[in-house]
Every structure is written in C-alpha cells, then in structure tokens.
Amino acid sequence: MDQTFQKAKPEVKAAAGQVVTAVQSQDYAQAAAAVQSLSSRPDLTKDQRLLTARAMLTINGLLEAAQAKGDEKAAAALKYQHMSK
C-alpha cells in the first residue's frame, strides 16, 4: 500500500497508513472501518481505488477468519457491514 499512496496528499497517505497499522496490529474491525473510509474518498487515483478495493476484500477475509476464532469485534464489524448494505 505504501508505494501506491507514496505521492498522495498527506491526508490520503495518513488514511492509508491507518489501514496498514490496523492490519499489522490485527485489529481487523478498525482496518475495515479505515479502508471503508479511505475507499469513499473522491480524490483517489485509479490505482489507489483498485488497491483499496483489493485491501477491502482481504480485510473482509481476515474479519471472517477472526470471527470464526471467536473475535467479537470482528463479528460486530461484519454484522455492521451487512446491515449497512
């Protein structure tokens, strides 16, 4: 993610950094919220949008795996996602 967002505006770069930090700390609920927020930005490039969409799919998979292991925050995040669709 770092390379794709390297030349982005500071606030976009910071938002991408929040996604990376949340994933690295295995806080997948926070990562899902951060990537959702990032994906809604109108100022992303085509490559940034593509990477954000791929990250969202990956994070959703991580959320499902965490939920299967009993992670209540992950379960709540998935429930919220399904209700907000």
Order of helices and strands: HHHH
- Overall 3D shape: elongated
Q: In DSSP terms, counting alpha (H) and pi (I) runs of 4 or more, how many helices?
A: 4
Major sheet, described briefly? none
What would you call the quaternary organization? single chain
How many β-strands, per DSSP? Answer: 0
Could you estimate the helical fraction of the residues in percent?
over 70%
Distance between the termini: 26 Å
Secondary structure category: mainly alpha
What is the topology?
Elements: H1 10-24, H2 28-39, H3 46-68, H4 72-83
Give an overview of the whole structure.
It contains 4 helices and no strands. It is an all-alpha fold. The protein has one domain. Helix 2 runs antiparallel to helix 3. It is elongated. The N and C termini lie far apart (26 Å).
In short:
The chain has four helices and no strands. It has 85 residues and is mainly alpha-helical.
Name the descriptors.
85 residues; single chain; 73% helix
